[in-house]
Design a protein that fits this description.
two-stranded antiparallel ribbon; single chain; 8 strands; 7 helices; 207 residues; six-stranded mixed sheet
Length: 207
């Protein structure tokens, strides 16, 4: 069995959690990660861009000039696209960019992302945070002592002292175990769990 150290408030090892050997031995399925990241990013793409066609442009409908004898093209009004302020031909309209991805594949992608972080030694498990009040300076001092310059902090339940102390720190983010997602796991250099949150995530995704 592979193990992962649990770091105490004194920044020393106070215990360990066991990891199944096949969890780290198997190769990470990058194809699943690619599909899931593409799916997640597509959901952030807001297709709200929109242009007006000639039927929607507010302009005079008076004929520009007479039909014949001018040597110019025959235009019916200034609403047509060649004129400044005219309607756009085949312009963009609101659309949905989201992709479909089966629930089982999304779950598998989370598992693969966690496995990749574990294999890269980018997971830290803490026995707890030594914060007795909302103090950003103390949170920074504790995290800097762990040699963590940025990371995703995963909590099992809301902890006001931790969440409010960390929210102003650049490069850090706190979420709960039921909010864990693929993009956050892959975006931060470290994933920091508490003992309780790691047990919860391990039971749900790694067992």
């Amino acid at each position: 069995m592979s193990t992962l150290d649990i770091i105490g408030e004194n920044k020393k090892k106070v215990g360990s959690v066991e990891l199944a050997d096949p969890l780290l031995a198997a190769k990470v399925n990058k194809a699943v990660l690619y599909q899931a990241v593409k799916w997640a990013l597509s959901g952030r793409h807001h297709g709200t861009v929109r242009t007006k066609t000639r039927s929607e442009v507010l302009f005079t409908t008076k004929k520009v000039y007479r039909q014949k004898g001018t040597g110019n093209a025959r235009h019916s009004s200034r609403k047509s696209s060649p004129f400044v302020g005219g309607g756009r031909v085949f312009g963009p309209k609101p659309r949905d960019y989201t992709l479909g991805l089966p629930k089982k594949v999304r779950r598998l992608a989370l598992r693969e992302a966690l496995r990749q972080r574990l294999k890269e030694s980018r997971v830290t498990v803490l026995d707890g945070f030594p914060l007795k009040q909302i103090k950003t300076k103390e949170a920074l001092k504790f995290l800097s002592g762990l040699d963590v310059q940025g990371g995703l902090i995963v909590l099992e339940a809301p902890q006001e002292f931790v969440q409010k102390s960390v929210r102003n720190l650049k490069g850090f983010k706190t979420i709960l175990t039921d909010q864990i997602n693929l993009l956050d796991l892959l975006s931060y250099p470290k994933v920091i769990f508490t003992r309780a949150s790691f047990d919860s995530v391990q039971k749900r995704y790694l067992s």
